[in-house]
Structure formats: C-alpha cells, structure tokens
Amino acid sequence: MKFRVIDLGRDYPGHITDFADARNSFVKDLLDDEYLLFVDSDEEAPKMLLDYIGRLKPQFPYYWVRRIELVNNKYVPVFNPNYNGRLCSNRVRFIGRVHEMIIPREPHGVIDIPIIHNHTGPASYRGGAQSGLKLGLLKVREVVRGW
C-alpha cells in the first residue's frame, strides 16, 4: 500500500479549530491508490504497524486502527480497547469539529497492531465517580457497536 504518515500538529498549517476540516484538507487531494495514516502529536506509530501497512493490499476506503490509550504513561483500562479510523483514502470524509467521525462508515477494514497514544498532563475528564460512570457507559457503547 502506498501511504504517508500525517501528524496533524506538525503537518497542518496554522492552528486547528476544526479537526474534520484539518483531516479533510489532506484526504481530498490524495490519488486513488494512496492512503494517509493520521497520528496526533502525542501518538506514536510503531515500526511494526508501518511495516504491516506497507505490505497491506488495499481493500477498503479506510481502516480502523487499534489505539493503546495511556494517561501520563499509565494504561487506563476504561479507555481500552479503542479503534479509530486512521488509515484513510480519498473515498472518505470526516465530520465533526472535535471527536470527528468518518463517512461513509461502512465498509472499513480493521488493523490490530496499535498506535500508542500517551495523553500527558491533567485529565480532561473530571467529576469523580460520575465521570467514571460516563466513561464506562461510553466504553460499553463502543464494545457493543464493535469499535
């Protein structure tokens, strides 16, 4: 597969106010046989993942890629497992300013070799047990949907 790695924080010109627009700015100009692997500045795509993608025969407009979620270098079970549409062709578009989604949603492939995400700094989710319950419910929803 022909692909490039795009780090939004590094490669997007200017300040990102709409993450869907930022991702779409890269996707819209791709050739039909090219893909982009999106990573954020606090993520790492291991060599094992990059090698796998390089050998992959494209079958889908995009691929969900597993992410291992860390917070301040620690594994947080409620955030895992996590899949995100990160390997994309020009046949998809993103919607939503933050926590963007891909359309069309189907069909897609799945890659289990993970991107590693390490959020450092204060947690953005506050509220003690109530936030934990909300996160738990969101995780149940993801698992039921097959994300």
What does the model show?
A hairpin with a 2-residue loop joins strand 4 and strand 5 (74-75). The model is unreliable at 127-131 (pLDDT under 50). The strands form 2 sheets. Strands 1, 2, 3, 4, 5, 6 and 9 form a 7-stranded mixed β-sheet that branches. Helices cover 27% and strands 34% of the residues. By secondary structure, the protein is of the alpha+beta class. The chain is built from 4 helices and 9 strands, in the order E-H-H-E-E-H-E-E-E-E-E-E-H.
Poorly predicted ranges (pLDDT <50, ≥5 residues)? 127-131
Q: How do the helices and strands follow one another from N- to C-terminus?
A: EHHEEHEEEEEEH
* β-strand amount: 25-35%
Secondary-structure-derived class: alpha+beta
The tally of helices reads 4
Tally of extended strands? 9
End-to-end Cα distance, whole Å, is 24 Å
Computed Rg: 15 Å
Largest sheet: 7 strands, mixed
Based on CA inertia axes, which overall geometry fits? Answer: globular
- Report the average pLDDT across residues: 86
Helical residue percent? 25-40%
Key features of this structure:
single chain; 147 residues; alpha+beta; two-stranded antiparallel sheet; globular
Give a quick rundown of the structure.
With 147 residues, the protein is an alpha+beta fold.
Task: Describe the protein's topology.
Layout: E1 2-7, H1 8-11, H2 19-27, E2 34-39, E3 43-44, H3 47-55, E4 62-71, E5 74-75, E6 82-88, E7 93-95, E8 101-103, E9 109-119, H4 129-145
Parallel strand pairs: 1-2, 4-9
Antiparallel strand pairs: 2-6, 3-9, 4-5, 4-6, 7-8
